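Fresh eyes needed here. I'd like your take on this protein's tokenised backbone:
***
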Amino acid sequence: MVLGANDGIVSTACLLLGVAAAQSEIGPVLVAGFAGLVAGALSMAVGELVSVGSQRDTEVADIAREKEELAATPERELDELTAIYAAKGLDAALAREVAVQLTAKDALAVHVAEELGITEESRARPLQAASSSAIAFALGAALPLVAVAIAPATLRVALTIGVSVAALGGLGAVGARLGGAPILPALARVMLGGAVAMALTMGIGALVGQSLG
């Protein structure tokens, strides 16, 4: 969600500033920004749907294969589970006992979790990934779009940059805190990167505007 919002802020702010640098009328700037918001959100959704959907397909195939192996060679699968617990530090007898007890309770679930690393909580969810990415991108993109819409013409560029960089800083801090990383390096990285991207886009937009004019 944080990464999606970051993408929404940077890409939309760059788009707005690039168009604003090429010409001064607010209408085309807003149209470009709104189109960028919609296109970016849909692109994020489709990308997540495809990638996470592929992951889900792989998980389903792996689980089906594990189910077949349990039905065909249960003893070998029990030996594999025993070896896994022994590798984690249990002595051979205890590892065997744990494997037998867990297999008796739900053989497929325990083998899928231990051998494939797949649990119900970690299963790939394409629709959830697609919707959350689209929403996060749209929320992030809305910040510079609102800023450019409400700002007076003389402050349009400055306010858009300020709001975007501040929002990036806030999201950088949130991402660092959630990940347990130092906050200041994350702040500097995301704010500096966003500012450089905006500056470059404005410069290119101004050059294109001059050449077309």
